[in-house]
Amino acid sequence: MTTSDTEAADAGGPTLTIDELAARAGVTVRTVRFYGTRGLLPPPVIGPRRVGRYDGEHLARLALIEELQHQGMTLAAIERYLRRLPSDLSAHDLALHRAVVASWAPETVERVSREELGRRAGRPLTDEEVDRLGAMDVVVPEGEGYRVDAGLLRLGVELLDVPLSPETVLAARTALLEHSRAAARDLSRLLRDAVAEREARDVRSLSAHMHPLVVQALLTTFQRSLREELREWLDTETGERPGP
Question: Which of 117, 170, 190, 241 stands 20 to 30 A from 111 (CA)?
Fold first, then answer.
């Protein structure tokens, strides 16, 4: 989504036609309609001339469905997964769920053509945008194609619409890696001590069960901490007194 699309979507205004939604999600219009008939997507808002309009929530839901499919889930399993989610989740909440799902997958680095890179990105990419993805270390030119981490590509494409320099994005990525590795070491040490006396089979089972729970806890905690930091920063910038 463009920055203006995102702002309008956050404000509750549907911005996309079904063709635009499909193009940005990297799926066909037929797929969007199929998901709608199965209840995987909420219905669009009907605007002038009976044209359906979609917003950031629809795009985020399509991204989550795509991630669940990448994990090998069947359509029936995806339907059950989405039914368990609260009905009023925002696009940001859905992105958080997608991040948790994506964390289950192993790191996958693939070599793709320029055409395939655009298809994976969900939209055509200009030469400048590909260079920016390269500067953010999301894609690496290799011969006539590119080496890309599939797990980072979607995030990198979304960052293209954020008014930050590649240098700032790389610095943020470095900070996140350093702090997340430190948290991972501390959590791993705690879990190791907790299961020190258990059988190896029980340890593996506990690890597999705890992985998604720990990731979701970290993401949720970080999201709330970041929201509080941003609120305090904005209050300081505008001269407002921080709320309770």
Answer: 170
> Using CA atoms, how far apart are residues 73 and 136, in angstroms rounded to an integer?
31
Residue type, 194: A
- Per-residue pLDDT reduced to its tens digit, 90-148: 887 888 777 777 766 656 788 889 888 888 887 788 999 998 888 888 889 988 899 98
Residues 188-201 have pLDDT tens digits of: 788 777 777 777 66
Residue 10 or 163, more confident: 163
C-beta of residue 54 within 8 angstroms of C-beta of residue 91: no
Residues of the chain with pLDDT > 70, as a percent, come to: 80
Cα separation values, 213 from 100, 159, 210, 218, Å = 9, 26, 5, 9
Exposed / middle / buried, residue 23 (Cβ in 10 Å: 0-12, 13-18, 19+): middle
